[in-house]
Amino acid sequence: MNTDPEIEHIRQAVGCPVLLEKRGFRLDVRESSRANPKYRRGAGEIIIVNHDGNGWWDPNSTAKGDVFSLTQHLDPSLNFGQVKRELRELIGLTPSMPPAAPRARGRDEPVVPPTLRWSSRAKLREGSDSWRYLVLTRGLPAAIVTAVGRADNVREGPYGSAWFAHRDGAGDLTGIEMRGPNYRGFSAGGDKTLFRLQLGTEPPARLAVLEAPIKAMAFAAIEGSRIDTLYVGTAGGMGPATLHCLQ
User: Fold this and answer.
1) Is the overall model pTM greater than 0.70, yes or no?
2) What is the DSSP letter of 135?
C-alpha cells in the first residue's frame, strides 16, 4: 500500500478543532470534555472530536473520519486536491479554545445506581419527544418502538433522548445506554451487558448481534420483524459481562 507522506503529515499536523473553528464552529464548553470536545454551528450542526483532535464524528448521521473527510463533510463540493490545499494552510495552527477539563467527581459524591436512574424516567409514550426521535428522526417503525417500550427496554430520557436498558440473563437491569439527537453515552456505575428485542413469545431459534439498540431495532425492521429471532445490542463493545450474556 502506497502512502503519500504529505497526506500523513497533514493528518498529524492539522487537528480537526482548527478546521472547525475556521469553518465557523464554536466549542460548546458546557457539553465538552477533554476527550470529546463538542463543536456547534448554526441550528443543529454538531461535530464531536475524538482521538486527540485527529478524529471526528457527526451525532446526527453516521459520518466520521479524519481531518480530510471532515473537510469534505463540511463542503462536499471540494475535491481531494482542494481539500489538501486548504489543510496545508492550517499546518501549525492551534484552536483558540482548548477543550474543557473533565469535571472531577468529588469523593463524597455518590454514583446513582442505574436502577434508580431508570425508575426516575417515564415509560415511553407515543408522540413524546423521545418517541418522535426514534420514529421520525431515526426512521424506526412505530410498531417496533412500541414493542420495545412495552417490554420496558426503553424509557424517555431528557431533551428528547431515549434510554435503553441493558439486562443480564436473569432480566435484571445492569446499565443504561443513552442516545439522543445531540448525545450518546452510558450510565456511570453501570455494566454493559445486552439490549434485547424479541418480537415473538416462543424461545428464539436465532440470534442477531448488533452494535447498538437503534441498529438492532433497524435490523429487525429490515428483516421484517422475525418472531424467531432475538435481536441484541452490545453498546459497541464486548466486555466480560456482554460475552457472558451471549454465551
Assistant:
1) no
2) I
